[in-house]
């Protein structure tokens, strides 16, 4: 955990398990120019420790992290530190990820390929009590929530099922998935069977092709604790 201190302004907690990503985000946010302070955490557990030690205005949370995902961390922040705003970052721009993040309590949703101006605008908006989504993404989210656009196949999956599907696409074996999620191999097999039934796919290869077509590899979404 590293801290970059500036003279005044917002106190930000930047949570991402990749050091190079954190460095890139700091350059985009430009804390010195904005007079913001940034504390870094490499895991959700480190983030909780930071939040217990000092107050923050905003947590910038990566959606995909080992151990505790961005969704789980967002839920915990909103439960234990309700005054802290949360801006979720992801490599995916699909509305389903934004909807899941907002349902977890996030105040904003930004993709990692956003321009610096959009990221800074998101930080300012969310930290001041607002909600931030890009204009295009906001329109798609509203359309889907209002039933004006087709519901993606992935929306049929629970967070747990989506997590397991993504891990399959990433090449994890059932035993590795079970170990990561602290579940039995039998439970993983049951979830996999349900996923195949919902998506009408008859093999692991078909699941992987489906996942790749929907750009699922690398972002892992952990489920609510009662969604087993």
From TrEMBL:
Residue stretches making up the HTH luxR-type domain: 150-215
Keyword Phosphoprotein: yes
Coiled-coil blocks: none
GO terms of molecular function: DNA binding
Chain positions with 4-aspartylphosphate modification: 62
Superkingdom of origin organism: Bacteria
Keywords per UniProt: DNA-binding, Phosphoprotein, Transcription, Transcription regulation
Entry keyword Transcription: yes
Lineage, opening ranks: Bacteria, Pseudomonadati, Pseudomonadota, Betaproteobacteria, Burkholderiales
A biological process term (GO) from this entry: regulation of DNA-templated transcription
Domain (Response regulatory) ranges: 11-127
Organism whose genome encodes this protein: Hydrogenophaga aromaticivorans
Name of the protein in its database record: Response regulator transcription factor
InterPro entries registered for this protein in UniProt: CheY-like_superfamily (IPR011006), NreC/VraR/RcsB-like_REC (IPR058245), Sig_transdc_resp-reg_C-effctor (IPR016032), Sig_transdc_resp-reg_receiver (IPR001789), Tscrpt_reg_LuxR_C (IPR000792), WalR-like (IPR039420)
């Amino acid at each position: 955990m590293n801290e970059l201190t500036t003279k005044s302004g917002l106190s930000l907690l930047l949570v991402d398990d990749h050091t190079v990503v954190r460095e890139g985000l700091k350059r985009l946010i430009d804390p010195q120019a904005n007079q913001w302070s940034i504390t870094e955490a490499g895991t959700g557990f480190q983030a909780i420790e930071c939040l217990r030690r000092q107050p923050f205005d905003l947590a910038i949370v990566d959606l995909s992290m080992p151990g505790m995902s961005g969704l789980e961390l967002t839920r915990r922040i909103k439960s234990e530190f309700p005054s802290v705003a949360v801006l979720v970052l992801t490599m995916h721009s699909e509305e389903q990820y934004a909807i899941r993040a907002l349902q977890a309590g996030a105040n904003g949703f930004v993709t990692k390929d956003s321009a610096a101006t959009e990221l800074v605008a998101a930080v300012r908006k969310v930290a001041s009590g607002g909600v931030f989504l890009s204009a295009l993404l906001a329109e798609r989210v509203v359309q889907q929530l209002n039933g004006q656009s087709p519901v993606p196949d992935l929306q049929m999956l629970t967070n747990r099922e989506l997590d397991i599907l993504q891990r399959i696409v990433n090449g994890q074996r059932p035993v590795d998935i079970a170990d990561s999620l602290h579940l039995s191999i039998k439970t993983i097999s049951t979830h996999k069977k349900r996923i195949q039934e919902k998506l009408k796919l008859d093999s692991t290869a078909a699941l992987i092709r489906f996942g790749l077509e929907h750009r699922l590899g690398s972002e892992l979404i952990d489920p609510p604790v009662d969604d087993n």
